[in-house]
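Good day; I would like, with your permission, to put a structural problem before you. A protein sequence and the structure tokens that stand for its backbone fold form the material at issue. Thank you for your consideration; the sequence and its tokens are set out here:
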Amino acid sequence: TTKRETSLEERFWKMVDVRGPNECWEWKGSRDPYGYGRTRMTGQYYKAHRLCHVLTKGPIPEGMLVIHSCDNSSCVNPSHLRAGTHKENSRDMISRGRSTSGESNPSAKLTRKIVEEIREHSACGPFNQTEAARRLGVSRSCIYDALNFIKWK
């Protein structure tokens, strides 16, 4: 058969390394920079895990994501995938230790030690957040967030 005669579903499953029911089923095709499988079918690009959800469970409700229970972005095992909200996905990420916080966040401007020093100085009396921000090369809101446990909890 030619590509045009092969169904979308058949073409999809040819790109999956199907294993045991509880194992990750790796996408064998191309991946995006974050490791998510991607494919072009019917003239459009699709993320493999989202396409798998549609093929096996039906449409993804509007505004929802497809969440991996296995933390493997290239996995397309339907039993590892479910529709969920961005908030649920973030909560899962944090509970599994996959979020970057504090110094492990590549965009962090402060270190744990500096945040502790800022809090100590602030507790000792008058503290000029604007001056501290200028000296540290960060915004005043960065200092405010650190002092008020908005960031660096």
In short: The chain has a mean pLDDT of 89. The first strand starts at residue 16 and ends at 17. Helices lie at 8-14, 48-57, 86-95, 112-123, 129-136, 140-147. DSSP finds six helices and six strands in the chain.
